[in-house]
Amino acid sequence: LRARAEAAAAAAKAEAFGEFRDAAVVEMVLQRLPQVAEAVAQPLLGTRRVTLVGGSGDIGVAKIPSEILDLVTRLPGAVGAL
Protein backbone atom coordinates (compact mmCIF):
# COMPACT_ATOMS: atom_id res chain seq x y z
CA LEU A 1 0.00 0.00 0.00
CA ARG A 2 2.84 2.38 0.82
CA ALA A 3 4.60 1.75 -2.49
CA ARG A 4 1.34 2.30 -4.37
CA ALA A 5 0.72 5.55 -2.51
CA GLU A 6 4.26 6.76 -3.28
CA ALA A 7 3.85 5.79 -6.93
CA ALA A 8 0.53 7.64 -7.12
CA ALA A 9 2.10 10.72 -5.53
CA ALA A 10 5.01 10.60 -7.99
CA ALA A 11 2.60 10.24 -10.91
CA ALA A 12 0.54 13.19 -9.69
CA LYS A 13 3.69 15.27 -9.28
CA ALA A 14 4.87 14.37 -12.79
CA GLU A 15 1.47 15.30 -14.21
CA ALA A 16 1.51 18.63 -12.38
CA PHE A 17 5.02 19.36 -13.66
CA GLY A 18 3.84 18.56 -17.17
CA GLU A 19 1.01 21.07 -16.88
CA PHE A 20 3.07 23.80 -15.23
CA ARG A 21 6.52 23.20 -16.73
CA ASP A 22 8.11 26.62 -16.39
CA ALA A 23 6.41 27.46 -13.12
CA ALA A 24 7.40 24.09 -11.66
CA VAL A 25 11.04 24.55 -12.63
CA VAL A 26 11.11 28.07 -11.19
CA GLU A 27 9.53 26.82 -7.97
CA MET A 28 12.08 24.03 -7.65
CA VAL A 29 14.97 26.43 -8.24
CA LEU A 30 13.62 28.93 -5.71
CA GLN A 31 13.15 26.20 -3.12
CA ARG A 32 16.78 25.14 -3.52
CA LEU A 33 18.26 28.64 -3.75
CA PRO A 34 18.88 29.00 0.01
CA GLN A 35 20.73 25.67 0.03
CA VAL A 36 22.84 26.78 -2.92
CA ALA A 37 23.65 30.08 -1.22
CA GLU A 38 24.69 28.19 1.90
CA ALA A 39 26.89 25.83 -0.13
CA VAL A 40 28.54 28.78 -1.87
CA ALA A 41 29.20 30.53 1.44
CA GLN A 42 30.23 27.38 3.34
CA PRO A 43 33.94 27.47 2.40
CA LEU A 44 34.17 31.00 3.82
CA LEU A 45 33.04 29.93 7.30
CA GLY A 46 36.44 28.53 8.20
CA THR A 47 38.34 31.46 6.77
CA ARG A 48 40.56 33.14 9.33
CA ARG A 49 42.29 35.59 7.05
CA VAL A 50 41.64 37.01 3.61
CA THR A 51 44.44 38.50 1.54
CA LEU A 52 43.29 40.55 -1.41
CA VAL A 53 45.56 41.49 -4.26
CA GLY A 54 44.06 43.90 -6.70
CA GLY A 55 44.33 47.08 -8.63
CA SER A 56 41.69 49.67 -9.30
CA GLY A 57 38.01 49.43 -8.47
CA ASP A 58 36.19 48.07 -5.46
CA ILE A 59 38.41 45.76 -3.46
CA GLY A 60 38.30 44.57 0.09
CA VAL A 61 36.42 42.24 2.36
CA ALA A 62 33.27 44.32 1.86
CA LYS A 63 33.10 43.04 -1.72
CA ILE A 64 32.77 39.35 -0.73
CA PRO A 65 29.03 39.46 0.13
CA SER A 66 28.25 41.18 -3.16
CA GLU A 67 30.23 38.51 -5.04
CA ILE A 68 28.23 35.75 -3.33
CA LEU A 69 24.96 37.56 -4.06
CA ASP A 70 26.00 37.99 -7.70
CA LEU A 71 26.74 34.28 -7.99
CA VAL A 72 23.38 33.30 -6.46
CA THR A 73 21.56 35.85 -8.65
CA ARG A 74 23.05 34.32 -11.81
CA LEU A 75 22.11 30.79 -10.76
CA PRO A 76 18.56 30.74 -12.23
CA GLY A 77 19.92 31.78 -15.64
CA ALA A 78 22.52 29.02 -15.45
CA VAL A 79 19.85 26.47 -14.50
CA GLY A 80 17.70 27.69 -17.38
CA ALA A 81 20.61 27.27 -19.78
CA LEU A 82 21.05 23.69 -18.63
Automatic annotation (TrEMBL):
Protein name, per record: FLOT1 protein
